[in-house]
């Protein structure tokens, strides 16, 4: 391609190499007269929002712009990866604008857990993370649960203003917006794209009846999420589609659990206890004696302990050990983007291992 083509939809430079980057269009599509990037094509023809990769600087620009708007900010998190999908500093970025918090993927949470309890938990956690949301909702974008209520609340709280939807990648932001589009506008060719002032980023606008818009911002990448270390073909194992059923392990001191080859849990001391593991059903849990654990990982990561895949092992980050003494009854040990293990008893000493770069943390038990 000699001459630089520009997408007639959003104005980005068209490229034909990387389907995940901004401006991608398949080379064959460019033989037609009007050049559009794949993202605009899908948006226009199927009302479908697609993710693109951006640099961290771009994301920062987006966040920094939010405070200059007079708008309602809707922040989406993945309830199964609450902290991993949190956008730190969102209250500061939002400025004086109210923030409505939406927890998505409620369908993954065991059915025995009460909605109300989970919403209260989200409120408490967000306050501790420095956010004072105007309201909190729990939805399943995939299943369509509570989308109507969320849409109605957005309409009420926006109070005649624009709405900016933010979230990190993989929280289900696109799925949510695609649902909302149907909810607020019915179907139809109503989406337009617009440029974000000061950047080359295109925002996606869904016009509302009163001349305002719902604006989709690009999904922000949280680098400490497990998803970035898993082969694309294996993402399905850590992006569960069905209710997570906890697997309960009775452990003696000095026993180890491996979650595939992605994480490891050592029970060091505290007597024989049971440990509910909220890990996607598709991930194999392997129990062994602590004294054999290092050797087992060395010899079997990438095959028996998988994902990661064997061919990834050369570049897969080493597992890093984090030791904790449990101070509160019912504490979750969270492996960011993978799941958690609940430790019921005060005084237990455990070690959690995750690939270097991935977060591990303790929190008040979610369930
Ligand atoms: P985005 O990157 O935030 O735009 O997220 P997507 O909408 O592309 O969704 C990311 C992944 O989460 C996909 O595999 C979706 O199928 C899945 N997903 C989205 N919403 C839900 C939900 O409500 N429940 C479940 N279980 N999965 C969901």
TrEMBL record:
Tree of life domain? Bacteria
What is an example of a Pfam family matching this protein?
MMR_HSR1
Sequence ranges assigned to domain CP-type G in this UniProt record: 60-223
Molecular function terms in GO for this entry? Answer: GTP binding
Enumerate the transmembrane spans.
Answer: none
Tell me the CDD domains matching this sequence.
Answer: YqeH
Mind telling me which Gene3D superfamilies this protein's record contains?
A: P-loop containing nucleotide triphosphate hydrolases
> What is the designated name of this protein?
GTPase
